[in-house]
Amino acid sequence: MKPTTMATWAAIGALVATGSAAAQQQTAHQPDHRIVAPQDIRWAAGLPSLPRGSEVAVLYGNPAMEGPFAMRLRFPADYRIPAHSHPGAEVVTILSGTFGIGMGSGADKGKTQAIPAGGFVALPPNSPHFAFIEEPTVVQINSIGPWAVNYVNTNEDPRKQ
Predict the structure, then answer these.
(1) 159: three-class secondary structure by DSSP
(2) What is the pTM of this model?
(3) Is the separation of the CB atoms in 121 and 129 below 8 Å?
């Protein structure tokens, strides 16, 4: 189970540094307020720890460091995330589309629950889960860093492909 690397987050930090002043990423948690308008969100190619095709936007904090963060993930239609877990609790809000999530160490599409836009999922630390996304979908993840993706079956880890 290989966690997301610091190099991954450095790349995300570089992306955010190119965004507008309103959307710029902090290198560590900062108690200042943050306002990000939808047009100021800067999307980048998804994290190497996720299958290709997704996009990411870090809105607040730094997922690689200790402290709270908020990030959005945008998935295309017909996207699959193999069974994995995270070291910390994860709070997911579905902003658009439908997020198909299932619990357990084997990714079985028949065992997913379709959560529509406006839905909410809270996952305790180290709980294996998987996702099947049939339509374009955007989710927001709020958590406490450092954040990582640990695959149940290391052969399904996109960083190894």
Answers:
(1) helix
(2) 0.81
(3) no
Q: What is the 3-state secondary structure (H, E, C) of 118-130?
A: CCEEEECCCCCEE
75 closest CA partner among 115, 17, 35: 115
DSSP E strands in 17-160: the ranges are: 44-45, 55-60, 67-75, 79-85, 90-96, 98-103, 113-116, 120-123, 129-133, 137-145, 150-151
Q: 55-60 and 98-103: which strand pairing?
A: unpaired
List the beta strands (DSSP E) in 110-157. 113-116, 120-123, 129-133, 137-145, 150-151
Task: Return d(Cα 96, Cα 103) in angstroms, integer.
Answer: 21
At 83-110, the pLDDT tens digits run 999 999 999 999 999 999 999 999 999 9
Selected from 3.20.20.140, 3.40.50.280, 3.30.470.10, 2.60.120.10, the CATH number assigned to the domain covering 6-160 reads 2.60.120.10
- Domain coordinates of the chain in residue numbers? 6-160
